Structures
1.
Amino acid sequence: MRTQVAIVGAGPAGLLLGALLHRAGVANVIVEQRSADYVLGRIRAGVLEQVTVDLLHEAGVASRLQAEGLPHDGFELSFGAERLRIDLRALTGRRVTVYGQTEVTRDLMAHRAAAGLATVYEAEQVQPQGWDGDRPRLTWRQGGAEQRLDADFIAGCDGFHGVCRATLPAAALRTFEKVYPFGWLGVLADTPPVNHELIYGRSERGFTLASMRSATRSRYYLQCPLDDRPEAWSDEAFWAELARRLPPDAAAQLVTGASIEKSIAPLRSFVAEPMRFGRLFLAGDAAHIVPPTGAKGLNLAAADVGLLARALAEHYGGSDAGIDHYSARALARVWKAERFSWWFTSLMHRFPDTGEFGARLQRAEFDYLCGSTAAQTALAENYVGLPLGA
Ligand code: FAS
Ligand code: PHB
C-alpha cells in the first residue's frame, strides 16, 4: 500500500487529522491497534474550545455537534459553600461547547467511513520506519501476515502510550514531566446535572467536578488517592461523597442513579520536544499530556492537527514553511496550556503537602478571583482557549 500521510492512531487527533487532510486533497491512511468499538468505549473529555469546534466545521464533521452540542457561556468555581461564576462570554466574548469526546470520535469515524477513507483497525505490532530518511513507512501484522504502508510522512497520533514517540532515539527527545499525587474517579450516569453549567469545586475533602454530556446525562469526578480503585466505590458511596463535597445548594439538586461508567484517571503534566523528527510528526497525547482540570487535552490535540494538516497541505502546494515551523508553533501553545492546567490543578486540589499555609493560599487565590475582573479574565481567556497561533 502507498499513501501520502500515514497516521498512527484513530483517536480524536488521528481521525481529525485524516478528515482535515482529506478536505485538503491529501491522501491518508489510519492504522489503529484497537477495534473501533474499543476506541469509542473510552469515556474522556467533555468540553470543546471554539478552536476545536471551528476545526470540526472545517473538516465537515460538525452537523451533530451543531444540533446536540451545549453552548456554555460560563462555569463556576466553588470553595466550600461559596460559588463564583466565571462569565466567559462577558469576559472574553467567547464560549465553550459541551459535547463528549466519544461523540466527536463517533462523528469522525462516521465521516471517514462515508468518505471511503482507509482505516486499519486491530493492527498488531505497528512500527514506524524510515522516518529519518525519504522513504517513511509503517509495518504491522494482521491475520498472521506482515503488512506495509509506504508514505511521504508519518503522523504519530498514537497517544501517551503509543509507539511513535517510543521509537525515537532518546537523545533526540527532551521530555518534561510532573506526576500529581492523586487521580480522578469519574462516573457517568443518566441523571440530570446538578447545575446548567460546570462546577469545579474545592472542599476540605478534596476536588470535585460536576459536568455533563446532556440535560439528562451527568459526568462527575472526585479527587481520589492514586492507589484507589473504581471497584472499591459502590454507586451509593460515590453519590454520598459527592454530596459531601459539592456546595450545599448544589448538593440539594443532586439526582442519583446507576452509574453507566466508572473509572479512575491519573493526572500528569508531560511534554516531549520537539514534535517533528524528519518525516515523522507527533500530535496530541503522543506529544503532551495535561491534567484534565483545564479541559485542555482533547483541545490541544485538535489544535496540533489543525496546524499539522495546514502544514502538510502547504507542502503539497510547494512550501515547507509550515512543516518546518510546526513543532515550534505547536509547542508555544502547548506550554501555555500546560501552565494553565497546572495552575488550575494546583488551585483546586488538596495535595499531601498543602498544609494549613497552602490551604490559606488557595483560599486567598479564590477570594482574589471573586474580587478581580482582571483575574477572572485571565482565567476565562485560558479556559475558552488561546487563539491557534498564540
Ligand atoms: P488518544 O490516546 O485518544 O488516541 C490514541 C490512539 O492511538 C488510541 O486509539 C490508541 O489505541 C492508538 N494507539 C496507541 N498505540 C498504538 C500503536 N502502537 N499502534 C496503533 N495505534 C495505537 N481531556 C480533556 O480535555 N478532558 C478530560 O476530562 C479528559 N479525561 C481523560 C481521561 C483519561 C482516562 C485519559 C487517558 C485522557 C483524558 N483526557 C481528557 C485527555 C484525552 O481526552 C486526550 O487528550 C485525547 O484522547 C487525545 O487524543 P489523541 O491524541 O488522539 O490520543
Ligand atoms: C468532562 O465533562 O469529562 C470534563 C469537563 C471538564 C474538564 C474535565 C472533564 O475540565
2.
Amino acid sequence: MRISVIGCGYLGAVHAASMAKLGHEVVAVDVDPVKIERLAAGDAPFFEPGLPEILSEAIASGRIRFTTDMSEVAGARVHFVAVGTPQGPTGAADLTYVDAAVAALTQYVAPDEFVVGKSTVPVGTAARLAASLSEAVPGATLVWNPEFLREGFAVQDTISPDRLVYGVPSGAAGESAVAALDEVYATTLAEGTPRLVVDLATAELVKVSANAFLATKISFINAMAEIAEVVGADVTALADAIGHDARIGRKFLNAGLGFGGGCLPKDIRAFQARATELGVGESLAFLADVDAINLRRRAHVVTLAEELLDGDVTGKRVAVLGLAFKPNSDDVRDSPALDITARLHELGALVSAYDPEANGTAARIHPEVHYVDSADEALRGADLVLVLTEWNAFRQLDPVAVAGLVQNPVVIDGRNCLDRDAWTAAGFTVRGMGR
Ligand code: UGA
C-alpha cells in the first residue's frame, strides 16, 4: 500500500521505516531539512536499537522516500500523522504541529483516503480534526490509531505491538477505515495481535490513560520507597513480594529516580489539563500527586548526595554515570538523571558525567556540565559516585576496579541496579532508593 507519514521524530521515523519493513511504499515528510537529509542517507537522527538496520533495508529496497515537500504525499491511501504534541506553558498539550500537519495534508488528500492520527492528543481533538477534514475533503476519513511504542524497543513495539487500537467513526466510513488499517497491519494481525475497534474519543483516551496508569504504578512504588526509607524496609523486596500477585504484576514496579522522557511526564500533565477543561478535573486530581512523588525523587537524591558529602557538595568531585531518561536511549527530555546532574553542578559540585549514548544530547541542554568519554574517566578521583541510568555497562562494572579509581568508595544507586553485596564487599557504602 502507498502510505505517507507526517513527522519524522521518534514516533514518525520508526513508524515510516517499520511500514516499509512491512512491505509498504512509504513517503515520510518532515519540516526539518537536516533531519530529512540524514534519514534519506540512512542515518538515524537518534539512538534507537534496530532502527538503522530497518532504515538501510528500506532505503536499499526503494520502498521509502524522505522529503520536506508535503505535496509528495499525494497518491498515498493512508496518511499517518506522527508529529509531536509537546507540553505547553499551562501544562496542556500544544497542538500547533498536529493542527498544522492536518491542515497541510488536507490540500493533498483525496476522497476515499484516510488520515490516521498517531500523535498523543487531548481527548476531543480527533472529532474536531475529523470535522475540518470532511468539510475540506468530503469522502476522506479521519481515524485515530494511537501508538504504544517504548523508546529502546520502538521497532519491535511497532511491528509486533501488544495490541492495535483503531478509533473510527460509525457507519460505512468506519468500516472502510478498519479495512484499510487491516491491510496496513496485515502482517502484524497475522501474528495474532489483538485488534480493538473503538470510537475516536475512546482511542484517544486509551493512549493517555495507559500512560497515566504506568506513571501511577511507578509513583506508587516510589511512595512505598519513601516509607521504606523511613522505617528501614527494602522496597525492592516489597515489589518482588507484591508483584507475585498476578493482579499487581512485577513490571513497572522499580523504585528509583522516577519517570522521565518525552511521554509520561507531559502526558499526565496534559491529561489533567484536559480533564479540568472538561469539568472533571477532580477525577484526575491524583495525578498531581503522581507528578509530585515523581519529582520528589530527584530532590531526594540531591539531598542524599549533600548528606554523603558532609552537608556541602561545593568543590567535591562527583562522578555521574547515566544521563538518558532510561537505558538504550540517548533521550534526555525531562530526564531525572540529567536534572540531578545539573542541580549538583549548580550547587558547586565538580561533576564528571558520562552516558554511553546521551553525552551529546545532554550537552545541548546543559552545556555547563563537564562530560567525559568513559565511565573510568568519570570515576577517577571521585568523592561520590551516582548511578542514574541503569545501562548494562554500569550494572556490570567491577566494583573492585571502581574502588581503585575513586577517592571515596561511596555510591548512590539511583536505579537500584547494582549488586549491593558485591559493591559492599569491595568496600563501598551503597545507598539505594527505598532500601
Ligand atoms: C512510554 C510508555 O511506556 C509507552 O507505552 C508509550 O508508548 C510511550 O511512553 C509514549 O507515550 O510514546 P517511554 O517514554 O519510552 O514509553 O518509556 P518507559 O519505558 O515507559 O519509561 C518511562 C520512565 O519510567 C523512564 O524514565 C523509566 O526509567 C521510568 N521507570 C520505568 C521507572 O522509574 N520504573 C519502572 O519500573 C519503569
3.
Amino acid sequence: MEQIKCLVLGSGPAGYTAAIYTQRAGIPTVICEGLQPGGQLTTTTLVENFPGFPDGIDANDLMERMRKQAENYGAKIWSKIAVKTDLSAAPYHIIFDDGTEVTAETLIIATGANAKYLGLPDETKYKGMGVSACATCDGFFYRKKTVAVVGGGDTACEEATYLASLAEKVYMIVRKPYLRASQIMQDRVVNHPKIEILFETNTTGLYGENGVEGGHLVYRQGQEDERKYDLPFDGFFLAIGHKPNSDIFKPWIKTDETGYILTEGKTPRTGIPGVFAAGDVADPTYRQAVIAAASGSMAGIEVEKFLSDK
Ligand code: NDP
C-alpha cells in the first residue's frame, strides 16, 4: 500500500494552495482531485473578486494556474475520489473509488461544499447564462437588472439584500408562507423597497433565448387556488443551502449539524493529529475562493509544523 507524506483531498483553491505550501516546504504531496476537478469555482465563469487580476479572470483559467503552480513545485495530482477513510490512528487509511488504498501521514481535507439546486433541467441548461448560486460572485453582472432569489433562509435574505444594492428589482421566491431566516434578516428584506417576496411560490422552469429571461412559477402548487404564471427576470439565484462534502470523515471528525467540519479556533486543526480542514468544507459563512486559498495556506503551514515537531 502506498504511503503518502501529505495527502490533500480536493482540488479547489484550498487544496491547490495547501499543496503549494507543503511542496515548497519539501513535503511530498499528492492532491486527489475529487468529483469536480478545480472545485466549485469552475461552475462560474468570470471571477472578478480574486485579488491580483484587475480585469477579472476566467474561473477555469484561475484554477488551471493554481494547479500548474502546485505541479511546478512537485505535487502529484490524482484523478480519484476518496470514498472511505479510517482516521482512527495514524497513518490514516484512505480508500478510493478505483479500489486503491493508501496511508497518509498527514491529511488536508479540502473537499468543499456544493450549493444545492432545485433539480430542474433548466438550471443545467442556463448554468452560467443567468443561473447562479453565488450572489457575491455573479451579482455584479445584474446591475440595474431584475433578479430572482430562491429560498427563505438567512443566505437567501443576505443574497437578496446584496443583490438589491446592484439590481433594479429583486424577487424572493419562497415556498412556504413565511421566511425561515433570523428576524433581523427578515426585517431587512421585508422593508427593502427593491425586494418583493413571493410566498408559497415554486419555480417549475426557466425560459429565455440566449440566457434566462424569466421563470415559470406556481403559486400554491397542488392546492385548489393554484395559479401558474411567468415572471420575467434576468438572473436566477439559488440560495437554498449548501452541502459540505464531509460524509466520509464523519465517523472521525466533528461537524456541525449541516456537516461543516468544526476546527479548533481560527486554525485548520480538526482535533485529529495531522488532519486539517481547509476551504468551504469548514466554512459555513464566507465561502469565497480567496478565503479558501488562505485557509489552504494555513493548513499547509500546519502540516509543515506538525511534521517538524514530530
Ligand atoms: P437554510 O437551510 O436555513 O434555508 C434554506 C431555505 O431554502 C429555506 O427557506 C428552505 O425552505 C429553502 N429551500 C430548501 N430547499 C428548497 C427547495 N427544494 N425549493 C425551494 N426552497 C427550498 O439555509 P441557509 O443557507 O439560508 O442557512 C444555512 C445556515 O447558515 C443557517 O443556520 C443560517 O442561519 C446560517 N447563515 C447565517 C447568516 C448570518 O447570520 N448572517 C448568513 C447565511 C447563513 P423551507 O423553510 O421551506 O425549508
4.
Amino acid sequence: MQITEQFIKLDTPSTSLVFRRYSELLEIVYYGAKIGDAADYDILSSHKRKYAHSCADDVITANMTFSCYGMGCDRVFSLSLKNHDGGYANKFLFRGARAAEKPIIPGLPSSYGARETLMLVYYDEDYDLELRQYYSVFEDTDAIAVSSAIENRSAHDAVLRSFASCQLDTDGCGYTVFSYTGAWARERYPSVTQLSVGTFEQGTSRGSSSHAVNPFLMLRRPARMGGYLAFNLVYSGDHRERVECTPMHTTRITVGMDDAFLEHLLPSGSVFHSPEAVMLFGEHRADISLQMHRFVNGHIVPPCFLRERPVAVNLWEACGYRFDRGKVLEFADRAAEIGAELLVVDDGWFGRRDDEKTSLGDWTDNVEKTGGLKSLAEEVRSRGLKFGIWIEPEMVSPESELMRRFPQYVLRNPRREPILLRDQCVLDLTQREVWDYVLRCLRDLMELCSPDYIKWDYNRFITDAYHAPTSAGEEFSLRYIKALYALLARFREEYPGLLIESCAAGGGRYDLGMLCFTPQIWTSDMTDPVERIHIQEGTLAGYPQSTLSAHIASEVCQKTGRRTRLRDRFALALEGVFGIEYDLTQCSREELADLKQAVAFYKEHRDLLLYGDMFFAERAEDGEAAVHIIVSRDKTRAVALVFRLRQIFNCEQDKYRLCGLREDAVYRVGIYGSDRTWDVQGKLLLSHGLDLGAYFPKDRSGVFSNEINSLVLFLRQV
Ligand code: GLA
C-alpha cells in the first residue's frame, strides 16, 4: 500500500487500484493491471477537480467510492439516509486514509487471511456522521474485499434507507454484463446484457440470495479499456446490484444488500456495518474465475474443510420418501462395493413424512421406516461408510406437532394466514425461543445418530417478513440472516469436524455467506446433463469446483425425461464434489462395475479435481461445445472434460483445443475408457487441439440423447 499526500495505491498480486485526493474529494483514477509505485500518477487523470458546495461539476463525473443525495449528483446512490431533521441530503467529505485492521463485521461472516487493509474515512459535518470504507487485499488472489460502515456520532437518531457495501466508479460506457439467473432446477444460467447509456439492475427481496439471480456478477469493459470486472457479496439474504452507464460516459457499479425494505434505525452513537463485498479486475475472462476460486478456497471456506470430501451416495433421487431400513442397507452394501465413502439418508426419515405435506419441525425418528436411526447409522458404518442425514431446520409443516404446539413460531403477518410454498412455512429464527428450539433439534439429531455429514436444506423462500412494531427500524431479511449465521456458527462450534452441505431446493442459496459455514452446496436439483452443464458452468464462473456438489443421477432424468449415458453424467460429476444419486439397488453387475471404475477415477484425481485451477477453452453458453480443464498448480497434471453439445451432421470439424497448460511441456494424454495414450506437445494442445471425433460413441440407436456427448481426458507431463 502506498499513501502519499495526493495518491493512495493498493496492490494485489497482479492488479492495482489507485485513488487520487483533491482536497476533500477522493477519486478512483485507476483500476487495472498492476503498475509499479511512482512518485505521482498525474497522467492517469487530467482533471483538476475540487469540491465546492456551490459547484457540483466535479461530483457529477468523478469516480467516487460512495455516493449520496446532497452533493449535487443524481446518479444511483450507494447510500441514502433520512436525517434527524427529516431531510435526505448529506455531504461526506474525504478526511483521510490509513492502513487499518480488517474489521470484524458484527453478526456477519467475512473473508479471512487478508494481507493488508486500507481504510478511507469520510465525514458529514452537518449531521455528524462518519463513513468508513475498508479495502482488503490478499497474498494469493486479486480479489479485493470491500465493506462500508457508517457511524452516527450525533445526538440524534437517523434512518438508513440504502447502504451498498461497495461502489466502483469507472470510466467509459458500453459495458457488457454477465449475470447468472434462473429458477428452481435452472439456477445460474449465464445471461448477457449489452449496456449503452442506462442502468442494469438485478436483485431479490426473497430473503435469500435466491435461484432467480446470484449475487455474482461479471462485466466486460469496453474494448478501448479492455479487461473484466467481477463482484460478489458475502451475504445470503436480499441483495441488489446496479450498473449505471451515464450520459457522461462513466459507469457506476454498486453492490450490497437490497434496499427495498431497508429502514434501519441508526440511533445516536451506533454503527451500521454492511456485509462484505468482493471486487476483482482481470485482464482476461479466465482470470476472473481463477482468482475468484482462489479467493473462495483460500479466504471464505473454513480451512478445516480444505481437504478431500467423501464420495456420497444419496437416496433422494432414487427413493424420494419411499424407503425403509432394508432399502438403506441395500444401498449401503452397493455403495461400499463401488468404493463410495458416505451414505446419505435424505428427506423422509422423521415424523410421518411420506410426502412433502407433513412433519417438518418434528425431527423424531420414524422407527417404522428406519428401524432406529442410531443402529441404522452403526450398521452403515460397519460397512466402512460414513453416515449422513438430511434436515431442513428453518422450516415447519402446517401439518406437524410443532405447528400445533407452537403456532407462534411461524413467520407470519398476524393479520393473515402464512403463505405456503411447497406446503411449508418458515420458522421465525429471529425469535430467541425459536432459535433455541432449532439448535436443540440439531443437537438432538447429533445425539440420535452422530452423523458425519448433514445436508442442511431450505426449500422455500420468505414471503411473510413482518415488521412487528417492537422491532420497527430493523430490516427483517438482515435480522433473519444474522440469526441463521449465529445458528450455523454455534452449531459448527459445537461440532467442529462435522461436514455440512447446504442446499435450498437445489441451489437457491448458493453464495459466499453460506460458504463461510458450509464448504459445499447442492448445486441444483436438475441432474440431466444436457441442462446441468449450463448450471455448473454458470456456477463455476464465480465459485470453485470444491463448493459444487455434483451427483450422477438416473439414466432417465425425472425432470426432463431425457435418457443420457453414464459417461456424460460421470463427466459432469467430476467437476465438483462427486457423488451418486440413483438407484444402486437396481443396477446390473456391469453398471456397478462401471460405477466402481468411475469412483476409483475420481478418487485417484480427487485433489486435482477439487482444488486444481479451472480453465474454460470453450463454453456451453456459446452453444457448440464445452471444454473445461482442471490443471494442477504446477501444470504437470490435468483433467479435461470435453462436452460436445451439438452434433453438426456431416461435418469434419471435431477438434478441441485445451488451455491452462504449459506450451513447452509434453503431456501424455489418455482418454477415460480407452487404453491408448498419446504424447503431445503442450503447444499443439493449446493451438491446434486434439481431433477427438473418432472417440465419441457412435450411437444412433436413439436410446440415448446425443445432445450431450462427453469425453474425459487425463494428462500428465512426461
Ligand atoms: C430439495 C433438495 C433435494 C432433496 C429434497 C428433499 O429439493 O434440493 O436434493 O433433498 O429437497 O425434500
